[in-house]
């Protein structure tokens, strides 16, 4: 059986992907809030 050291795996690609996912979520949240504010002012 192969030996394994906990915490030795390279997860830099995963970290970059997760950071991009969080940025996309933030952009969608801010965009949605702006659209709702705009619709509230326009009155549709």
From TrEMBL:
TM regions (residue ranges): 21-42
Taxonomy, superkingdom: Bacteria
Domain Cytochrome c oxidase subunit IV bacterial aa3 type: 4-41
SUPFAM superfamilies, per database record: Bacterial aa3 type cytochrome c oxidase subunit IV (SSF81469)
Keywords per UniProt: Membrane, Transmembrane, Transmembrane helix
InterPro entries in the record: Cyt-C_aa3_sf (IPR036596), Cyt_c_oxidase_su4_bac-aa3 (IPR012422)
UniProt entry tagged with the keyword Transmembrane: yes
Pfam name, any one: COX4_pro_2
This protein's name: Aa3-type cytochrome c oxidase subunit IV
Species annotation: Thermohalobaculum xanthum
């Amino acid at each position: 059986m192969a030996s394994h050291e906990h915490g030795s795996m390279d997860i830099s690609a995963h970290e970059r992907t997760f950071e991009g996912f969080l940025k996309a979520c933030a952009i969608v949240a801010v965009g949605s809030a702006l659209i709702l504010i705009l619709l509230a002012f326009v009155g549709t």
